[in-house]
Structures are given as structure tokens and as C-alpha cells.
Amino acid sequence: MATVQLRTRIDSDLKRKSDAVLKKLGLDSAAFVSMSLSQLVNRRGLPFAVTESDEDYFTAEYGLTAADKVKAGRRLKRESARARRSGTLREITTAADLAP
Q: Is 82 inside a domain boundary?
């Protein structure tokens, strides 16, 4: 299979930290990028969730202090867990879960 060179610029600190993690996994940056792009193609989407934490969302949306941010995140997690237990909030993991 023919290969091409992919050039990109990233923060040097991020590169150093990611290289250290990849080394522990027995990988290098090129292998990781190839694996990630393969999963992108296979899944036809990002191979990981792209989300903002609950606490960060509340901080940005409502201008909460650090303490308020943690408190709001804990409350949301408690309320979500309570709703799951009562059946008013269901997790959707397959298309069958969308049926009423």
C-alpha cells in the first residue's frame, strides 16, 4: 500500500505528553494517527465522544464560581441517576432503544 506524508503542527508540550503515553502503550505518533484515522473511516465519525463536562458547561453558561461549578455537576449527576432509576431517563445504546 502506498503511503503519504501527513504534516501537522501541535503544541510541543502536548506532543511530549502524548509521546510519553503512546510509548507506554508500545505505539508512536504515526501509528496512533493511522489507527485513529482508520477508526474514523470505519465508524464514519469520530472514534470517541466529543463532549464538554457538565461542570464546564455550567461555568460557561451561568458564570459560576469553581465551588458552584462542582456543586452543580454533583447535583446534575444525582438527578440523572435518580431519573434513570425511576425510568424517566433511558440510555440509548442501539436503535431498538428508540422504540417506545
A: yes
Contact 51, 45 (CB under 8 A): no
Angle between helices 66-86 and 54-62 (to 10 degrees): 120
Does residue 70 lie within any of the structural domains? yes
Average pLDDT over residues 30-46: 91
Distances (CA, A) of 73 to 11, 61, 65, 88: 30, 13, 12, 20
Confidence (pTM): 0.50
49 occurs within a structural domain: no
What is the model's pLDDT at position 47? 83
Would you say 49 and 43 are in contact if contact means Cβ atoms under 8 Å apart?
A: no
What is the predicted pLDDT for the residue at 23?
Answer: 93
